[in-house]
């Protein structure tokens, strides 16, 4: 029995000495000290040992276990020390190196302009409503008093998915969807991305953003529209800003107008920025056409309203004096970090 124990211990010590990693030590422990290990099997065979020899054999087994456990723990500590040293070597920080610069992002010029417009209108009691960019032709054209083959469709040539579904050319469909709900009165703005088949240049893009507003209530007049847009211009461009309305035509409003604001560079005296006119065009507007109200289930004899639409990029270009719309989409950090 003594010779058998010595053979087991010698074999275990040789394997421990030859081990190269912690995992192999675990396997050795299981092989010799586990529930089915070699030493455990000897303990199980103690019943075959003569009673007078059992104490001596038990002592030999315990000494063998102590020897192996001590050697396993010694090798484990050695491996763990090497692993810590290797980890420390890899994670060493050279304090003489320059620190990494933390680059903090910020909002895009479009986002800044949009938040400011939303702040102005929310302050006047409007709610912000969004809708789908992929829209039915009915909501994008017909419900806005633009029937099939209407010339206005040529001006808003868009991308068709099929004959009934388009990429919206304006955010006015959101207004129609809100009117159809029949929850009156309505005071809302609808910001969002729109699409038109335009060539890319300094002032045009096939994808851009609009903010359209709508008010529906009893006894709404053109005077309410003028007062609202005058206040909007003052808050956006300064207290000295004035607005001028020029007659225009939109299929979904009647009467309609284009709105100019006094040039905030020259104060209306005329400069290169306003091309010498003293005025800058900013948006289109008008009283909601009775046909549009009827198609949305609203009685034009009882309710009236006004609508307006402004390009978000146009506001950003004017407010920050950017001369090329393409700069907003080129993602040039040198340009964007100015805002």
TrEMBL record:
Gene3D superfamilies named among the record's database cross-references: Bira Bifunctional Protein, Domain 2
UniProt KW keywords: Aminoacyl-tRNA synthetase, ATP-binding, Cytoplasm, Ligase, Magnesium, Metal-binding, Nucleotide-binding, Protein biosynthesis
Gene Ontology biological-process entries: phenylalanyl-tRNA aminoacylation
EC numbers, comma separated: 6.1.1.20
PROSITE patterns attached to this UniProt entry: AA_TRNA_LIGASE_II
Catalytic activity: tRNA(Phe) + L-phenylalanine + ATP = L-phenylalanyl-tRNA(Phe) + AMP + diphosphate + H(+)
Major subcellular location class: cytoplasm
GO molecular function: ATP binding; catalytic activity, acting on a protein; magnesium ion binding; phenylalanine-tRNA ligase activity; transferase activity; tRNA binding
Short name of one Pfam family: Phe_tRNA-synt_N
Cellular localization per UniProt: Cytoplasm
Signal peptide (residue range): none
Annotated InterPro entries: aa-tRNA-synth_II, aa-tRNA-synth_II/BPL/LPL, Phe-tRNA-synth_IIc_asu, Phe-tRNA_ligase_II_N, Phe_tRNA_ligase_alpha1_bac, Phenylalanyl-tRNA_Synthase, tRNA-bd_arm
Domain of life, per lineage: Bacteria
GO CC, alphabetical: cytoplasm
Note accompanying the cofactor annotation: Binds 2 magnesium ions per tetramer.
Assembly notes: Tetramer of two alpha and two beta subunits.
Similarity remark: Belongs to the class-II aminoacyl-tRNA synthetase family. Phe-tRNA synthetase alpha subunit type 1 subfamily.
Protein name: Phenylalanine--tRNA ligase alpha subunit
